[in-house]
Design goal:
The structure is a homodimer. Chain A is an alpha+beta fold. Chain A has 14 helices and 25 strands. The radius of gyration of chain A is 25 Å and the shape is globular. The relative contact order of chain A is 0.11.
C-alpha cells in the first residue's frame, strides 16, 4: 500500500527502495548484494528484452550463448581489462568436491571467453562481420549495491562483433548506441544524451566508449547503456587474425555493447511518483486494469455480462488487460494496489455504469476520472495509451531541459551542485587533472562529451584555459 | 560439409558429436565440460523457449529470476537434496579479492534459494497457489560430459510452485508433465512415454518424480523432462507455513519441473541422418531456404525479379525463409550446407524456372526434387511444412513402436539388450534389488512406470515373483 512509502521529496533513496519492494518489482536475496526479480519486475524485463531483441535482429545480429565460467588466465590476457575488472571478480576454486587446477572466474563481461572462440571461427574476410549478441547473467563483486542499479548479479545483453576494418567497427559502435537511444526514448519514454566518455570513464580494454545518459527524478545522471569500440585490443590478446580480400593477414576489429536490468531502475526513477510506479504502456506487463464493482449476486451477474462487451472491444483493439475480480479485497484497496504497480490505465465499472452504458477511466499518470461510453472503448483506450506514452516522454524531456544549464564560471558551477544540481553544459580543456579536481570538489563527473557541439570556443570550467569542447557534467548513480 | 561426418550406423556417438560441431549448433568451450551454443543452436533454443513459455503462461505461471549464488548452508537444509547434489557442486570461495565467510554454491537447481524467499512471500491461503517459473543457467560438475546431453553448464527452465493442499500440488505435477508431452510431440515431433520414476531414480528431495522419456535413433532412452511432487519437504526445510481458510497453520505443498538444452540433443538424435540435421518446421530457425542460381548478370536480374514473386507469396502465407545469394559459394555447396543445417524445405530457382514460371522444391527429410508452379507457392509451402511436421512425428512414433517389445523371460530380456535393444515392457516386483541386478547385468534401467497399465498380472522379469506392475526398461543416456 502506498501509504507505506516515504515521499520522494523527503528521501529520494528511501522512496526508491520502498517503492521497488512494495510494488513487488524485486526483493533482497539472502546473498550479499543479490536481488530477486519478482514476476512484476521480470515481466517488464521481458518486454524490454523482446523489444531490444527485435532491434538487434533487424540490424543483422544473432543470439548465442557462451559459458559463464572463464579461466582466470583469460581475464589476464588484455592488460587494461584485467586492471579494470580484478577488484570485482568472484572466483570458483572447487568443483565436484576437488580443488581446481586453475580457478574459474564468473563472467563480469564476456569479451575474453568470446574472443577465445572467435579465434576458431574467424579465418577469412568471408567470416566477417560476425555479429553476435548474448542474453546472460553477470557477476561483479560490488561494494555498495542498490536494487536494480548496482547488484552483484544482474541480467543483461552483451553484443560482441568482429569486423574487417576499423571504420566498419566504429560504425557498428555508433549504430548500436543509436539503437539504445531509440529504445530508451520510444519504449521507456526516457530521453537520453548521447556522446563519448572521457578517457577516465571508458571501458577497461576499449579504445573509445560511448554512452547514453538519462536524468533521474533527483536530477542525477544514470548511465543507461554503453557501446565500445575495442579496436584490435582483444584480437591481439587472443590472436584473432583473418585473411583479407587482398590476401593479407590482419587482426580483427571489435565492438561490444550492453544494457542491463539497471534500465528497470532508470524506468522507476524517470516516471514514478509517491503513489507508486508509473509505467509507460509499451513496457507495462499489461496496459489496462479493469476493476468491477458489485454488492449483490444480482449486480455481479449484471456487471460480468457488461464486462464481456468491454473485453471484446479491448481485444479487437489489441489492448492488453486484466480483470481484478478477487473477492477478498475492496475496490478501494485494488485502486491503490494497481496504482502502486503502475498499470497505465484503469477502468472501474459498477451497476450504475451498466445502466448508463458507460464506464469510469483513470489514467495512472494524471489520476483524474473521466466517464466514457462503452461503444468503441477499445479504440479509445488505444488512443489514450498512445497519448500516455507520448506525454510521459514529453514530461521527462521537459524535466531534463529545465534542469540543464549552460555554466561558464566555476563559482556558478559549485553553487549549482550545492543547490539542486542537474546537467551542466560547460567547457573542459581535456586534462584528466581538471576532471578529477571538479569531481573531488563537487562530486560532478563528465557524463558525456556530446556529439553535437555548440561550435563556439569557451574556457575550461576548472582551469580557465581556452577549450573547444563542451561536455555535460552531473552527479551520477 | 556432410562428407566429413561419420555414418550413424558406423559410430552413433561420433556421428552425433561431429554433426553438432559441423552444423554449428555448438562448439566445445575452453572450460572442462562446458559448451558454446552457436547461433544456429541458440535459435532452436529460442523457439523452444518461446513455445514453452506460452504454454506455461497459459497455465497461470509467471516468470521471475532468482540469484545463481546460493549459500552453502541452504543446500544442506534438505537431507536428501544435499546427498543427491553434493558431488556435483561448484563452489565460489573468493569475491572481490577476499575469501568469503561462507562459500557460495552455483545453483545446481533452485529449490533452496526459492523456498528461502517463499518463506517471506507466503503467509495466508490467499497467497496460494504461487506459480513461478525461471529461465536460467545451471551448473553441475559432471564427470563425463556430452554436447547438449550432459554439460557442466546448461540452460533450462525450472518451475517452482506452492500449494495449499497435496491434491492440488499433485495435479500441478501431472499438468506440467503433460505440458512437456504436448510440447515434445507437437513441436519437436518426438513421441514420449510418460510415467513415474522408481524410488532409485527420483529427484533428490522429491516425494515422487514423473518423467517423459523418448527413444533416440540408437534405441536408447533419453529422459527429456521431469516433474516432481515435493510434498512438504522443502516447506519444512525452510519453514514455510500458511494460515489456511480454516485458520490453521500448515506447511505448504510444492512441485518443481524442468526441461533443458538437453532437448536440442534429443531433437538431433530423433530425426537427423547422415547428411546432417533434420529439423521439424516448428523449431527450425526458419522454415525454408531459397537458393537462386545464375551465371550472368542478365540471368541474375531475371532471377532476382522472379524471387520477388516467390517471397511475396511466402510472406503472405507466413512462411519464414532466407535467400542464400552469397557469391563466393556454388549452388551445390549451398545445397549441402543447408541440408547439413537441417532447414526443412529448399527452393532452387534458376533461369529455366523463370521461363517456365516454376521452381524446384526439395524436402529435407525425403531429398526428392519436385517441380511446383510459382502461383500459390506460399500456401503450397505451408501445406508441405505441415506435412513434414506430421511425417517426422509419425516416423519417430513408428520407430519407437517397432523397437518396443513385451518381454517376459529374463533370457529374452538379456538377449534383447545384447542385440539391438530398445524399450522392454516387462513386469517388475518393485524391489530395488531386482532393479539393481538387472542394471548390473544388462545396463538397462527402469525408465518409467507407465500410467497406463495393461491391467494383467505377470512375473518380475528378474526374480519371477508375481507382479501387478509393468515397467519400461531401456539403456539410456
Amino acid at each position: 500500500m502506498s501509504k507505506g512509502i516515504t515521499g520522494k521529496e523527503t528521501d529520494y533513496s528511501a522512496w526508491y527502495n520502498e517503492l521497488i519492494l512494495k510494488s513487488e518489482l524485486a526483493d533482497y536475496a539472502p546473498v550479499k548484494g543479490c536481488m530477486v526479480i519478482r514476476p512484476h519486475g521480470y515481466a517488464i524485463w521481458e518486454k524490454m528484452r523482446d523489444a531490444l531483441d527485435v532491434m538487434f535482429k533487424a540490424t543483422g545480429h544473432e543470439n548465442a550463448y557462451f559459458p559463464m565460467l572463464i579461466p582466470e588466465s583469460f581475464i589476464k590476457k588484455e592488460a587494461e581489462h584485467v586492471k579494470g575488472f580484478s577488484p570485482e571478480l568472484a572466483v570458483v576454486t572447487h568443483g565436484g568436491g576437488k580443488e581446481l587446477e586453475e580457478p574459474l572466474i564468473l563472467r563480469p563481461t564476456s569479451e575474453t571467453i568470446i574472443w577465445s572462440m572467435y579465434k576458431d571461427w574467424i579465418h577469412s574476410y568471408r567470416d566477417l562481420p560476425l555479429l553476435i549478441n548474448q542474453w546472460a547473467n553477470i557477476i561483479r563483486w560490488e561494494m555498495r549495491t542498490r536494487l536494480f542499479l548496482r547488484t552483484t548479479e544482474f541480467l543483461w545483453q552483451e553484443g560482441h562483433t568482429a569486423h574487417a576494418t576499423a571504420e566498419e567497427a566504429e560504425e557498428e559502435t555508433l549504430r548500436m548506441l543509436n539503437v539504445y537511444k531509440t529504445f530508451t526514448e520510444e519504449f521507456m519514454a526516457m530521453p537520453v544524451l548521447t556522446g563519448k566518455k572521457s578517457e577516465s570513464q571508458k571501458f577497461a580494454g576499449a579504445v573509445a566508449t560511448y554512452a547514453i545518459e538519462a536524468m533521474m527524478g533527483d536530477k542525477k545522471a544514470l548511465q543507461a547503456g554503453t557501446s565500445h569500440y575495442l579496436g584490435q585490443n582483444f584480437a591481439k590478446a587472443f590472436d584473432v587474425k583473418f585473411q583479407s580480400e587482398e590476401n593479407k593477414e590482419e587482426y580483427v576489429y571489435a565492438t561490444s555493447w550492453g544494457v542491463s536490468t539497471r534500465l528497470i531502475g532508470a524506468l522507476v526513477m524517470t516516471h514514478s511518483d509517491n503513489k507508486g510506479l508509473v509505467l509507460p504502456p509499451k513496457l507495462s506487463p499489461f496496459e489496462l486494469i479493469i476493476i468491477p464493482i458489485w454488492k449483490s449476486d444480482e449486480e455481479e451477474t449484471e456487471v460480468r455480462e457488461f464486462l464481456g462487451k468491454i473485453e471484446g472491444s479491448l481485444k479487437s483493439a489489441g489492448v492488453t488487460y486484466k480483470v481484478d475480480d478477487r473477492k477478498n479485497y475492496t475496490p478501494g484497496w485494488k485502486f491503490n494496489e494497481w496504482e502502486l504497480k503502475g498499470i497505465p490505465l484503469r477502468i472501474e465499472v459498477g451497476p450504475r455504469d451498466v445502466k448508463e452504458n458507460q464506464l469510469v477511466m483513470v489514467r495512472r499518470d494524471l489520476s483524474e476520472k473521466v466517464i466514457k461510453p462503452v461503444e468503441g472503448i477499445g479504440e479509445e483506450s488505444r488512443k489514450i495509451l498512445d497519448t500516455i506514452q507520448k506525454d510521459l516522454f514529453e514530461k521527462a524531456k521537459a524535466f531534463m531541459a529545465d534542469n540543464t544549464k549552460k555554466i561558464s564560471s566555476y563559482d556558478d558551477f559549485k553553487e549549482f551542485y550545492k543547490s539542486g544540481g542537474g546537467f551542466a553544459e560547460s567547457h573542459w580543456c581535456g586534462s584528466p587533472e581538471c576532471e578529477q579536481e571538479v569531481q573531488e570538489e563537487t562530486k560532478a563527473t563528465i557524463r558525456v562529451i556530446p556529439f553535437e557541439q555548440p561550435g563556439e570556443k569557451g574556457s575550461c570550467i576548472k582551469c580557465g584555459k581556452e577549450s573547444e569542447t563542451m561536455v555535460v557534467f552531473a552527479k551520477s548513480y
